[in-house]
Automatic annotation (TrEMBL), chain A:
InterPro entries: PqqD-rel_X
Source organism: Allosphingosinicella deserti
Protein name stated in the entry: HPr-rel-A system PqqD family peptide chaperone
TrEMBL record, chain B:
InterPro entries according to UniProt: HprK-rel_A (IPR027600), P-loop_NTPase (IPR027417)
Coiled-coil ranges (or none): none
Molecular-function GO term, any one: kinase activity
Name of the protein this chain belongs to: HprK-related kinase A
Family matches, as NCBIfam families: HprK_rel_A (TIGR04352)
Keyword Kinase among record annotations: yes
Superkingdom classification of source: Bacteria
Keywords assigned: Kinase, Transferase
TrEMBL record, chain C:
UniProt xrefs under InterPro entries: TAT_signal
PROSITE patterns associated with the record: TAT (PS51318)
Gene source species: Allosphingosinicella deserti
Highest taxon of source: Bacteria
Source lineage: Bacteria, Pseudomonadati, Pseudomonadota, Alphaproteobacteria, Sphingomonadales
Protein name: Uncharacterized protein
Length: 92, 287, 135
């Protein structure tokens, strides 16, 4: 079953600075600043300028990382929900 | 307006207009020795009658200017000096675009700045003022001005607002530096103290931030210090800045650079002597 | 909130794997914090404030017990407060404390409900918002 598809702004639209294992991110289009813990930044990288649903996001992240989660689908859905609420990803 | 006074404080110049002479006369005495103001003011403050009939009968001062808060309560005329100070704070809080504002006391030694930041009432203003009397160069007790282009802090040495118990700590200061006793203010009894002469003489001299401290005073607090992580420092400083959002990317760059490069600690203390000792120890160990 | 940890797995004779492990977090976890500086808090702490009850735009309306505006003279409703309520008084009143000096106790409960219903753009909203922010 295909879930909703998301996209994030291209990487030149955000500025990120690592601080203490977290990423502080300035989102130019909204002028807002967010503090992100992993896997937030990795999900944004997976969706930067590229549409994807939850499955696609998991697949793209798995190319670089071994994923640890009891229920990866639920976890990814929760993370995408948070990023959407913050205005960092949007549905297409 | 009937009466006007121009003031230059650090890089910022104000023009304060007033319907009454007395608050400006008090302001002028408090800021004696400050350099001449620029011809064109950065910000204007106006002390106006709250309603036309409040100019004479139970006179009541509304704080107006380039920037206003619509719900601000007017103050009685005897607190006109406080109204002028609040008016200047408000112009900075709402209108300052060149420098990122930190709600902090700043003191410096040998070109390096100590940032004292934290919640209102925790003790940072009093501590900045005390350090200014102990050989540190006082740069401000309310606003730190961070230049996004250089990463340096610029002095903004306004008159120091001392409330209630804190006043007693400055008994040794030259009484000529003190403003009038202001009773019945929203924060209790207040008196202003003019910053030390060297703070005024060097108000055009920026300093490089070298240490951030989050001071907390409590009569029963045991003296204690602990590190504060960079992410927490960042979030706390955004809460303590009135113009972080309006500065956009410049603000983000300035604040992330500050937090990434400058160490931070939280200090708790039960007396000024403890506070000063902790500051000196942590400053010596700051690198 | 933990960061990625490196794990080096080895099998006999093979090159060790250098892929990092990325924890996806529990479903209920919170991994995004949005910075929302409180203008009302910092500017509000700079200035005392007051709340007119009701606002001057309300044109002579009375205040019902639940804080809503009703036509003047409505049974059970209270006339406008004789003076604006200061930020400090509102804070005390909203926390169940004593009635502000000079105001009727029952009317003050209606005024408190009025204040709780303030929206952006109404007189007194900035003052009310600044009371909500932790100091």
């Amino acid at each position: 079953m295909a879930g909703p598809r998301y996209i994030a702004d291209p990487e030149d639209q955000v500025q990120s600075v690592p601080l203490e294992g977290l990423i502080v991110l300035y989102h130019r289009p909204s002028g807002m600043t967010h503090l992100l813990a992993p896997p937030g930044p990795q999900i944004l990288a997976a969706l930067a300028g590229e549409v994807g649903d939850a499955e696609a996001v998991l697949a793209r992240i798995s190319e670089h990382f071994d994923l640890a989660a009891d229920d990866p689908a639920a976890a990814i859905a929760a993370r995408l929900g948070e990023l959407e609420a913050a205005g960092l990803v949007r549905r297409v | 307006m009937r009466h006007a006074l121009a003031l230059k404080i650090g890089p910022v110049s104000f023009r304060i207009g007033s319907a009454w002479r007395e608050p400006l006369a008090q302001l002028e005495r408090l800021y004696a020795g400050y350099p001449a103001a620029d011809e064109v003011a950065d910000f204007t403050v106006r002390l106006e009658p709250a309603t036309p009939w409040r100019r004479f009968a139970r006179p009541s001062v509304a704080i107006r200017g380039d920037y206003t808060l619509p719900d601000a309560a007017p103050l009685p005329l005897p607190l006109g000096l406080l109204a002028a100070e609040m008016g200047m704070n408000l112009q900075m809080a709402l209108g300052q675009k060149r420098y990122l504002l930190l709600h902090a006391g700043i003191v410096a030694r040998d070109g390096e700045a100590l940032i004292l930041t934290g919640a209102s009432g925790a003790g940072k203003s009093t501590l900045a003022a005390l350090l200014g009397e102990q050989g540190w160069r006082f740069m401000g007790d309310e606003f730190g001005l961070l230049d996004p282009e250089t990463g340096f802090l610029h002095p903004f040495p306004r008159a120091i607002s001392l409330k209630n118990a804190a006043l007693a700590l400055f008994d040794g200061a030259d009484p000529g530096r003190l403003g009038p006793v202001l009773r019945g203010t929203p924060k209790g009894m207040i008196r202003h103290l003019r910053p030390p002469a060297d703070a005024i003489a060097r108000m055009a001299e920026p300093a490089r931030p070298a240490l951030i401290l989050f001071p907390r005073y409590g009569r029963d607090f045991p003296a204690e210090d602990r590190p504060v992580g960079a992410a927490e420092v960042f979030v706390r400083l955004t809460q303590a800045s009135t113009n972080y959002v309006s500065l956009g990317a410049r603000g983000f760059d300035a604040l992330t650079a500050l937090v990434a490069e400058v160490p931070a600690r939280a200090i708790d203390y039960g007396s000024s002597a403890e506070a000063i000792a902790m500051v000196e120890r942590l400053w010596a160990a700051r690198a | 909130m933990s960061g990625p940890e490196s794990e080096i797995g080895e099998q006999s004779g093979d090159r060790p794997s250098r892929r990092a492990v990325l924890a996806l977090g529990a479903a209920a976890a919170s991994t995004v914090v949005t910075i929302r500086p409180a203008l009302a808090q910092t500017a509000g702490s700079v200035l005392n404030c007051e709340i007119p009850v009701p606002s001057t735009q309300a044109g002579g309306n009375y205040i019902a017990a639940d804080g809503s505006l009703v036509p003047a003279g409505t049974a059970g409703a209270y006339p406008p407060a004789p003076r604006p309520i200061t930020g400090e008084e509102a804070k005390v009143l909203l926390n169940g404390g004593p009635t502000p000096a000079g105001l009727n106790a029952e009317a003050s409960q209606a005024y408190a409900n009025y204040i709780r219903r303030l929206q952006a753009g109404m007189s007194g909203f900035t003052c009310y918002a600044s009371l909500q922010m932790p100091r």
